[in-house]
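Reminder to self: tokens first, then the designed residues, so the page reads top to bottom the way the pipeline ran.
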């Protein structure tokens, strides 16, 4: 498992833009997941580009909760890649332009257990 912090309030890389919000790309075997989408789509996509993360390589998106600093970049991301399965809280309605939208109201199992034993990278 590899976790790359794409969007956060701080960055250890000078070439990435920091902003209020959060997004991470999680790689597990052949799956690439975008977890949250930050507050601003331009910042999200620019940081992804600088990290050599192609938006079209993402197959799944998880949105943790319905706050703008976690959902603000979602529309811009979906404009680049609408072939994803999107998992969102039940309270988040009106999401369009994804291949499939799954509203989550109770715990779900996405994979079998994958222990977090490799590394977490913050950029």
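Designed residues (123 positions):
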């Amino acid at each position: 498992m590899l976790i790359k912090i794409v969007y956060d309030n701080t960055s250890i890389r000078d070439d990435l833009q920091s902003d209020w919000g959060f997004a991470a790309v999680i790689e597990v075997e052949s799956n690439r997941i975008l977890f949250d989408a930050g507050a601003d789509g331009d910042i999200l996509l620019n940081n992804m580009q600088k990290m050599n993360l192609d938006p079209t390589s993402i197959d799944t998106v998880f949105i943790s909760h319905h706050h703008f600093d976690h959902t603000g970049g979602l529309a811009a991301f979906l404009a680049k890649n609408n072939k994803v399965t999107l998992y969102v809280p039940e309270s988040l309605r009106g999401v369009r332009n994804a291949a499939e939208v799954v509203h989550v109201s109770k715990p779900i199992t996405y994979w079998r257990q994958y222990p977090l034993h490799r590394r977490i990278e913050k950029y």
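Confidence is low (pLDDT under 50) at residues 112-123.
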